[in-house]
Amino acid sequence: MNLHAFYNSKYIGDDLLIRLCSQREVTHYQQYHDLCVLYHHDQVIGYNLFHASTYISSLQDGKVKITPEFVEQLNRVLKNENQELVESDYDDRFRVGRVIQIEEHPDSDHMHICQVDTGDETLQIVCGAPNVALNQLVVVAKNDAVMPSGLIIKPSSLRGVESHGMLCSAKELALPNAPQVRGILILDENDYQVGNPFFK
Fold first, then answer.
1. Does a structural domain hold residue 168?
2. Pairing of the two strands 43-50 and 15-19
3. How far is it, in rounded angstroms, from Cα 49 to Cα 173?
4. Tally of domains within the chain
5. Mean pLDDT, residues 48-70 taken together
6. Which distant-in-sequence residues (6+ apart) come within 8 Å of 165 by Cβ?
7. 98/159 same-domain check
8. Of 9, 23, 95, 122, which one has the greatest count of Cβ atoms within 10 A?
9. In this structure, what CATH number is given to the domain that contains residue 181?
10. Residue ranges of E strands in 52-148
11. Are residues 102 and 193 in the same domain?
């Protein structure tokens, strides 16, 4: 299981939003003290945890890094409310990749169909960035990655061509001093290696 969690104290207060299954809609919920369990029919798909900083340490605004400590603290809350415990694979799905093949999209004048080596697999990713080119080292958001904006990357079809992931810009990754111009982030060959996690 790949947990996703978000915290935004400025706009929603001391509440933690946790997703277990991103593709299902909430049909109903049940509240147990500070824990609100979200359901899609009979399946638990997420939680809202109120007064979250009381239960989870070191929360910062934005996407929450899922660590063993986080899962342990969340499971303590779930156990106290007689809920099923959760687990996570701790993979944030952001990898260093290399563009090993590129061709023009047959139904677009600006998109390209890229084959990208991510170390353990080659992904086909449709990319509309103007600066994408062969042999570049890039940041790949694989399926189920959660962007800083909250967007969850899912398999898609762009004008009839399957795409499995996204090549990211510095702005999309919310990197400090990211340029506002269009274009993916190109990584330095001396600093990064194909297959490694992008975020340390």
1. yes
2. antiparallel
3. 26
4. 2
5. 93
6. 116, 123, 125, 140, 141, 142, 143, 145, 153
7. yes
8. 95
9. 2.40.50.140
10. 62-63, 94-104, 112-117, 122-127, 137-141
11. yes
Q: Which letter does DSSP use for residue 6 in this model?
A: E
Question: What phi, psi does 17 have (nearest 5°)?
Answer: -105, 125
Is residue 86 in a domain?
Answer: no
Name the one residue in this structure whose structure tokens are 């170390």.
119
The C-alpha R_g of the chain, in whole angstroms, comes to 19
**140 against 63, higher pLDDT:** 140
Tokens 């990713």 identify what position? Answer: 125
Q: Do residues 98 and 76 both lie within one domain?
A: no
Question: What does DSSP assign to residue 67?
Answer: -
- Measured CA to CA, the distance from residue 51 to residue 148 in angstroms comes to 22
**pTM of this structure:** 0.74
Amino acid in the structure at residue 164: H
Q: pLDDT (tens digit, 9 = 90+) per residue, 139-177? A: 999 998 888 887 889 999 999 999 999 999 999 998 988
Say which residues have a Cβ less than 8 Å from residue 21's Cβ, sequence separation at least 6.
40, 43, 45, 46
Say if residue 22's pLDDT is above 90: no
Per-residue model confidence (pLDDT) at position 177: 87
**Judgement on whether residues 108 and 198 belong to the same structural domain of the protein:** yes
First to last CA, the chain: 21
Contacts of 164 (CB under 8 A, 6+ apart): 123, 124, 125, 142, 143, 155
Q: Residue 200 corresponds to which tokens in the numbers above? A: 């340390």
- pLDDT at residue 23 in the model: 65
Q: Contact at 8 Å (CB) between 47 and 64?
A: no
Q: Could you list the residue range(s) of the whole structural domain that residue 157 is in? A: 92-200
